[in-house]
Design brief:
Length: about 130
C-alpha cells in the first residue's frame, strides 16, 4: 500500500536584511516548530552612481530571494510574514517560479518579533489550518 504524502509546512519571517525559516521538525502526530535557517541579505554596495547602486541592490535582493526559495522547495505550504512590503515582494518572486505553482503561499504582516513569538505565530497559523 502506498504511503500518503504528509504535507510539509514552513514559515518565513523576513525583512530586507534577514530571513528566518521556521518549520515543523517533529516525528509523528505532535508539531514542534523550530528555526531551521537564518539567511542574511547582502549589504548594499557603497559608492557609484544612484543607478548602479540601485541595480546592485536589486541584484542582491534577487540573490537573497533565490537563496530563500531554494531552502523552501521541499515544503507544500509556506507562510510568509514580516514588516513592510518584503513578504509581498517575496510572494511575487515565488509566484514567478514554476517550482512553486503547486504550493500554497500565504502572507501576513508582522513587526519585529522575538524568536519564540515567530515560532508561535507559525505554529498557530498551521494549527488552525490542520484542524
Amino acid at each position: 500500500m502506498k504511503q500518503k504524502h504528509q504535507k510539509q509546512y514552513a514559515g518565513v519571517w523576513l525583512d530586507n536584511t534577514k530571513a528566518l525559516i521556521i518549520a515543523d521538525t517533529s516525528e509523528g502526530d505532535t508539531s514542534e516548530y523550530t528555526i531551521l535557517d537564518k539567511v542574511k541579505a547582502n549589504e548594499a554596495h557603497g559608492g557609484g552612481s544612484e543607478h548602479s547602486m540601485n541595480n546592485a541592490k536589486q541584484s542582491d535582493m534577487l540573490k537573497y530571494y533565490k537563496t530563500l526559495s531554494t531552502l523552501l522547495l521541499d515544503y507544500d505550504e509556506i507562510f510568509v510574514f514580516g514588516p513592510g512590503k518584503s513578504q509581498e515582494q517575496f510572494q511575487h518572486h515565488l509566484q514567478q517560479d514554476a517550482q512553486f505553482n503547486s504550493k500554497k503561499i500565504t502572507i501576513d504582516s508582522a513587526e519585529q518579533l522575538t524568536d519564540p513569538q515567530m515560532i508561535a505565530k507559525v505554529r498557530d497559523h498551521f494549527k488552525s489550518r490542520q484542524s
